[in-house]
Amino acid sequence: MDASTGNSVKITINQDVCAATGECTRTAPKVFDIPEDSDTAVVIMDLVSDPEQIALVEEAAQFCPTGSISLERN
Questions:
Q1: Cα 8 vs. chain centroid, distance in angstroms?
Q2: Which string of DSSP letters, residue by residue, matches 13-41?
Q3: How far is it, in rounded angstroms, from Cα 58 to Cα 53?
Q4: Which CATH number fits the domain that encloses residue 31?
Q5: What is the pTM assigned to this prediction?
């Protein structure tokens, strides 16, 4: 997904697929978290409009080992 198109990105995580590897939290810590009592990552900012954060979220989705991150351009 190219960060130059669209103004914001809606982020979701497929909880059935996520393995909580932490790749997303390392790449975009303002957007993703893994709570101490959880087996999966969660989205703490489900709509991102800052171009820098969009680029980080796109990178996190691209490198997610389970492919559990979905992005929707708004």
A1: 13
A2: E-TTT----SHHHHH-TTTEE--TT-SS-
A3: 9
A4: 3.30.70.20
A5: 0.87
Query: Which pLDDT value is given to residue 1?
Result: 41
pLDDT confidence of 6, banded at 50, 70, 90? low
Q: Kindly compute the dihedral angle of the four CA atoms of residues 21, 63, 50, 1, in this order, to the nearest 10 degrees.
A: -150
H/E element, 43: strand 42-43
Asked, for residue 58, whether it belongs to a domain, the answer is: yes
Which residues form the domain of 46? Answer: 9-73
Dist CA 59 CA 44 (whole Å): 17
| 3 found inside a domain | no
69's tokens:
């991150």
Question: Are 8 and 48 a contacting pair, CB within 8 Å?
Answer: yes
